[in-house]
Amino acid sequence: MSRLKSILNYALKELVGYGFRLVGLVYLLKFRNRNTAVLVVLNYHNFSDYSNYAIRRGSLLSSGHQANFEKQAKWLKKHFKFVNPANFYEHSTDNGLQVFLTFDDGYKDNIEIAFPILDKYNLLAAFFIVSNIPGSNQWLWHDKIRYLVSTTRLESAKSELALKNLNLGKEPDPLFLKEVKDLESTLPHHRLMMNWDEIQRLKQHGFIIGSHTHTHSPLKFLSPEKRIEEMDLSRQTMASKLNGDISFFAYPNGLYDDNCHSLMKEYGVKYAFTTNPGFNRQNESPLEIKRIGINASDSIGVLLIKLFLNSGK
Q1: Element (H or E) spanning 288, and its range?
Q2: How far apart are the C-alpha atoms of 240 and 197, rounded to whole Å?
Q3: Can you give the pTM of this predicted structure?
Q4: CA 65, 58, 168, 210 torsion: positive or negative?
Q5: DSSP 80
Q6: Does residue 280 have a pLDDT over 70?
Q7: How far is CA 12 from the centre of its chain?
Q8: CB 76 within 8 A of CB 19
Q9: Which of 112, 109, 110 is nearest to 127 (CA)?
Q10: How far is 41 from 97, CA to CA, in rounded Å?
Q11: pLDDT for 7 beyond 70
Q12: How many CB atoms lie within 10 A of CB 117?
């Protein structure tokens, strides 16, 4: 029954997306003629078959979807103007719809799959790095959970609920945290993330490298002292490895609070990215930039649906 439901959901989504391509594009292109500027930030993560699937999840350890991501890149390049958020907030006199891409966490498939396509079409993008992971075989907490679910070591519904609640700002159940920790020894010795040489290559090709904290700990859950530690270590590591700063920042899991504004300013962050969906206007805070989550496997129709549904926010 669950497989049939997945098939029906996929078919419905693609059918609506197919019918939406013309109508949705016409609607979005109207933003070109508006007398105000609008910035749309699309947020990607990785290219894994676990996250990018049509009906049934694949392996967390395998990546693909190059052809579909290139379709997205070509379509975006054809219809929209790409802009650096710094230009949008500080220097832009252009009106209408403008686009920027971001990639969170620093996955190795970003350099293997995203980079050649972004470079080919000369698209502007930022990569947000968890600074204690590059060059190691460490995994982020959500990847540990997803792998353990895929190998039936963790129960799927309970795990997905824990991940969903985290993104809603609820701290994980300590018993669930312990269950994950007890199973960590079963994880394979596999590098999921880029190393510093690969990240340096992105920087040398003109892409923005931003901070995603040092350990991907949601700032909302941390004490003032721990927040400072996360930011200090991230800044020091970025300076040492890339001779760079952390003027671009993405909140882990999109979680932040009112005190984060002063923290960002203290560390020289000018542009901080949330996971709040919507379009951005120039009179809104550049420390709470909204983003729309996109999968590399999304069809153009589905991408358009996501843009349309968030255009009024």
Answers
A1: none
A2: 13
A3: 0.92
A4: negative
A5: S
A6: yes
A7: 25
A8: no
A9: 110
A10: 11
A11: no
A12: 18
Amino acid identity for residue 251 in this structure: Y
Q: What is the Cα–Cα distance from 72 to 49, expressed in whole angstroms?
A: 17
Q: How many CB atoms lie within 10 A of CB 79?
A: 14
Which two tokens mark 129?
């790095």
Structure tokens at 215: 């350990």
Span 28-53, pLDDT tens digits? 766 666 677 899 999 999 999 998 88
Contacts within 8 Å (CB) and 24+ apart, 133-136: 133/106, 133/193, 133/216, 134/106, 134/193, 134/194, 134/195, 134/196, 134/198, 134/199, 134/241, 135/195, 135/196, 136/191, 136/193
**Third-level CATH fold of 2-137+191-310:** TIM Barrel (3.20.20)
For helices 300-310 and 2-29, the axis angle rounded to 10 degrees is 70
Rounded-to-integer distance, Cα 80 and Cα 44, Å:
18
pLDDT of residue 10: 62
CB atoms within 10 A of CB 305: 18
- Report CA Rg, the chain: 19
Q: At what angle do helices 2-29 and 66-79 cross, to 10 degrees?
A: 20
Residue ranges of domains in the chain = 2-137+191-310, 138-189
Place of tokens 């994980």: 172
Give φ, ψ of 291 to 5 degrees.
-140, 150
Which residues, at least 6 apart from 84, have a Cβ–Cβ distance to it below 8 Å? Answer: 100, 124, 208
Beta bridge partners of 249: 211, 272
One-letter identity of residue 123: L
Rounded distance between C-alpha atoms, residue 251 and residue 274, angstroms = 6
